[in-house]
Specification:
Radius of gyration: 18 Å
Structural class: alpha/beta
CATH topology: Double Stranded RNA Binding Domain
Shape: elongated
Largest sheet: 7 strands, mixed
Order of helices and strands: HEEEHEEEEH
Length: 191
């Protein structure tokens, strides 16, 4: 299990309050992270059409597609990883807490999505940077922020050297697993 202090040493910034979290959360709600415009750095060698005389996919549409796919992969992987760790996690962008429950809400915003270079046998140099927010809501009370931290995949240690050359979807999955373990560690410490 990855501990939150590990990330502090990697150059990430985190803030945590001592807001009371009396018991294990009934549910963890994972929201898709926001994807502001113009945060996607595209591979400049792609975007052409194999059909001569026809333009390739417009850069703005390609960037929006990568941003949507990355947001989906991150939210979906966090949810599944938390379930695998024994938590009742759901991915919901609109649902809120039940009136009589204790819930953690994981959300965030992408700061950068770099597609890297996709030419050749394997994609490389892809990276993602995010700001993550974790709130707790107890019963009908307003949500309280219990943690804010930043992660950058260029600063997250790789499990093995073969994963170094990976595309943006692999990087998104690795980032999401790291976020899920951080959320689980925080939920455990705040228990």
């Amino acid at each position: 299990m990855v501990a939150l202090p590990l990330f502090f040493g990697l150059g990430t910034s985190a803030q945590s309050s001592d807001a009371p979290a009396p018991e294990h959360p009934d549910q963890i709600i994972v929201r898709r992270f926001a994807t502001p415009r113009h945060i996607v750095a595209l591979d400049p060698s792609l975007g052409f059409s194999l059909d001569r005389g026809k333009p390739g996919v417009p850069r703005a549409r390609r960037a929006a597609s990568i941003a949507r796919a990355t947001a989906f992969i991150v939210a979906d992987t966090i949810t599944h990883e938390l379930r695998d760790l024994g938590y009742h996690a759901v991915q919901s962008d609109e649902g809120g807490a039940e009136p009589d429950g204790r819930f953690l809400v994981v959300s965030g915003v992408f700061r950068n999505i770099n597609e890297g270079h996709r030419r050749g046998a394997a994609a490389k140099d892809a990276s993602i940077a995010v700001s993550v927010e974790i709130d707790i809501q107890i019963h009908d009370a307003r949500p309280q922020r219990i943690a804010v931290f930043r992660l950058d995949t260029r600063q997250i240690p790789h499990q093995n050297s073969t994963q170094r050359n990976s595309g943006v979807s692999s990087v998104a999955t690795r980032l999401a697993v790291t976020i899920a373990h951080t959320v689980a560690e925080l939920a455990h410490r705040k228990n």
